[in-house]
Amino acid sequence: MAVEVVVPRLGWSMDEGTFGEWLKQDGEYVAQGQSLFVLEGEKSAQEIESFDAGILRIPPHGPRSGDLVKVGQVLAYLVAENETPPFALAGAAVTTPTVEPASPAKVSATPSEPAVSVPVTPATVASPAVQASPRARRKAAELGIDWTNLTGSGSTGRIRERDVLAAAQHPTATTGRGVVPASRKGGQPQPVTRLRKAIATRMLAGANETAPVTLTMPCDATNLVSLRQQFRTMRRDAEDVVPDYNDLIIKLTAAVLERHPLLAARWGEQEITLPSDWHIAMAVDTEGGLLAPVIRHVDRMSLRQLATETRRLAHAARAGTLPEGDLQGGVFTITNLGMFGVTAFTPVINLPQASILGVGAIVREPAVSEDKIVIRDRVTLSLTFDHRVVDGAPAARFLAELRLAIEQPGPWLMS
Amino acid sequence: MSAKVTTGLDKQTLLELFRTMHVIRQCEEQLAKVHQRGLVHGACHTYVGEEAIATAVCAHLGQRDVVFSTHRGHGHALAKGVTPRQLIAELLGRSTGCSQGRGGSMHLFSPEVGMMGTSGIVGPCILQAAGAGYTFKLLQSDQVAVAFFGDGAVNNGAFHEGLNLASIWKLPVLFICENNQFATEVPFAYAAGNPRVGNRAEVYGMPGFELDGNDVLSIYETASDAVRRARSGQGPTLIECRTYRTRAHAEGMGDFTYRTREDVEKWKEKCPIARLKSRLLAEGRVSARELDAIVDEVSQQIAEAQQFAEASPWPDPATATRHIYASPQVPQRVVVKSAPAPAGTREITYMKATHEALAEEMAVNPRIFVMGEGIGKRGGNFNTTAGLYDLYGPVRLCDTPIAERGFVGMSCGAAMTGSRPVIDFMFADFVLDSVGEIVNQISKMQYMSSGRLTMPVLLRGCIGIGHSAATHHSGNYYPMYAHFPGLRVVVPSSPYDAKGLLKHALRSNDPVLFLEPRELLGTKGPVPAEDYEIPFGQAAVVREGTDATVVAVGRMVPVVVEAAQKLSAEGAAIEVIDPRTVAPLDIDTILASVSKTGRLLIVDECFAPFGLGAEISAQVADRGFDDLDAPIRRVNGLHTPTPYSPTLEAAVVPNLDDVLRGIRELLAE
Lengths: 415, 669
Fold this sequence. Notes:
The structure holds two protein chains of two kinds. By secondary structure, chain A is of the alpha+beta class. Chain A has helices at 104-108, 122-126, 134-143, 161-169, 194-208, 222-233, 245-257, 303-319, 392-407, and strands at residues 3-6, 16-22, 29-30, 35-40, 45-49, 54-57, 68-70, 74-79, 212-220, 280-282, 284-285, 290-291, 294-295, 332-336, 355-359, 363-369, 372-386. The relative contact order of chain A is 0.11. Chain A has two domains: 3-108 and 118-184, CATH 2.40.50.100; 194-413, Chloramphenicol acetyltransferase-like domain (Chloramphenicol Acetyltransferase), CATH 3.30.559.10. In chain A, β4 and β5 form a beta hairpin. In chain A, 25% of the residues lie in helices and 21% in strands. By secondary structure, chain B is of the alpha/beta class. Chain B folds into three domains: 5-311, Rossmann fold (3-Layer(aba) Sandwich), CATH 3.40.50; 347-526, 3-Layer(aba) Sandwich (Rossmann fold); 540-668, 3-Layer(aba) Sandwich (Rossmann fold). In chain B, the strands form five sheets. In chain B, strands 10-9-11-12-14-13-19 form a seven-stranded mixed β-sheet, with helices on both faces. Chain B has a five-stranded parallel β-sheet with strand order 1-2-3-7-6, sandwiched between helices. In chain B, α5 packs across α15 (404-416) and α20 (556-569) crosses α24. Chain B is elongated. The N and C termini of chain B lie far apart (83 Å). Chain A binds chain B through residues 1, 80, 133-138, 154-155, 158, 160-162, and chain B through 598, 625-630, 665, 668-669.
């Protein structure tokens, strides 16, 4: 039976978002865990992972890039081989979950009176009680999840155990309440994966073998937000990639770094090596753990190229298909925890690099401008640098210039 | 016929005959009386008027000789040594009764004294006596078996098959027909084309006699000769004793819709006890005082027995399901649980594996014998006994006429008397003629005897659809047998399981239906050469998986395994469970699997309605409800007789595609 691809809720208050783009083609096979489409919420664009496998079938009137879509809206279907997607069946339509409750008159409309003025799809009339398998109910009770709010993936829409587990692991996709995933129950040892081991080694080295200092710098991000909105508004078509904040900050950082190469230098006992190429690493959170794929020659890339490349790298990192080469050669790393509401933090240096930039949440808050309190978008940068390589003042100068770039981004994007 | 007799008998014997008849008479009259008072809870068929027969025949039997009887069996039990206490207590439903309250009037068991049971079914006692005779022949014992039956039994197939089988094998059996002229109320004169019974013996090639059933001395003399012939290996005898029951068919029933008061009164005048008494007095061999003393003594005995019965405890309701199966057997060899055969183990066919099990057990257990059509010199239709005839001869490898009811009924009596029959019926369809013997007799004997009898009967044959065998050579039937308490139902799917389970069957004391999927007989698999057995009720997890549980038996196991392999390539991990024994059913292993996977499919070549899948589904829905993440599904053979043409035949059996579809749909649920 077809599995519905629906708009997830990306934040607590999110009711609608902007559809970005499909990351899979109509008719393409989607494996469980692969990214399916890009959805822009209030703060950022996210690649939406598919919890099910199947062949993607996008209806003819499926969402276009830039369309507003409601949480819960069915965008497409995942079907089995040779299975006909529901929209191809007579009478079915892509429905939104926020339909008006059918009036009694509509409900009582009998099949012998087909000419009801308001077309009512079967899905809206039936509105059957939510069904869940006994196993799913038990699992939901164990995990403290209200299964009545979940979307079932069973052939009849029945909520299955996997739906509850998915809700537990990705609470933002449902109304789940920040639960402990079943796989991380207390008392159950979790094996240390190879990736986990590698992260542990690198992080320990970054913390112990360097002389880390963290500086934080509040910036006004109003122009950055405005700039991004311009890109969104002026998008040409569904194929057109809109750079997100990360893309903009990577580009700006690379431009500023060129003027402060010591921040991207490499420490050696005998000599300090300055960078020859502006390869910037970006931290990506994957199911297996942190990965930092490298965008090469950021200085030579257009924003469009950069945005395309960061999508590819993030996607590959999450799918576990990232070539080893994409993880090497970075001279500077940017990490962003803004989507979680974090404003400032102390990132750990990614050796052999000399510094790392942490990007916080863009928050609308009151600010003083010309002795007036105004509402501005604010973002805080957190720079951790290796004091062996660079001193506090030059690091602060770099950060101050980066603030300028963020506050007045236009001129820095010319190259 | 009997004028001269008393002179040849000593006084003690004459008085014993008199006493036994009086014990029966007074006991029956007591039972009739307490039946009226409501103390007898079920039926009560009295033997009043027929006492001479049981008395005269049993006078020649020792405790090791055995009697198989009918619904009118109080007299046989008493004459064979069951005490009035035990009889009355049984009819009063007390724990001190001869069947400990499990039987009542029609199920009197006392194997300790050779009373092998009375029966509510007309006919089987004939076959069971023949079976006991077969045990005595096998074990070269001089014991004798006796079947008492009424005229109602002689128009039944069991009579024909039993007498013929006893005759061809010269079995030490007395067939005693108590012709009381009515089968309940249908007159024998109406029911029989040949109104005589004794002369039918000639048809079967054995001596036959027609006696006055109310003349104890005449019967005594004829039975004496018959017992002597039986003990000396000269075979069976049929003795017809013409008699009359002078009470109703059962206490409380009307009596004069089918016979007249006059007839009954006339026969009362021929009372066998009065006849013996008057002859003894007329000949002056005993005094009236001596006989009166016996009558008084018996009266006291019966009165005391009644008091004993009424004072006896009721059986404990908690024991109502005890003795359905034999207690754990004593001589257990090492049980190797279903550990997979180690790599490098030799591979043999399913057929060879069961042959080895049988040959090995026959070599160490002389009580095992095999019966079936063509299993002697020929070695069996499926080579089940190839070569064994040369080793063990015609008594242990016994070819039979085509008389399934006959030899299956015989296997019951054989097992009851200490041998271990293996019935090889080739195709499971053939044995349906004997289902009454299996489910009404063999399966119930352990229970009805309160565990005093064991029933090591192995019934084996082929099942399953294939090779255009058509509808009389392709049935499965295991759900039917599994329905009945007292039977073990085994359906092995691999050579390893087949050998281990057959070994266990040949060592266990319960009746076993050992059903071999014919399409698998030629399949090869690893079978260790060393001795091992697989206990009943232990499912095999043939393949482990986490996404769905598929239960399959017999022929469907390899099909499901193939499907699971295919699906494994698609990323689905299917757990395959083979219960191996349908009864007992290892539901715990299935539940444990469902608890892991949340999904259950039962694949069964046999019919869906009321079948294996229905039973498993019900139990899992009950005990494993909260484990289920999807509805329980079944894939079954179509509910139809098996057609012949290959295209039709293929349509009724689940194939790989059906199984794949079933699993995929279940995974999508």
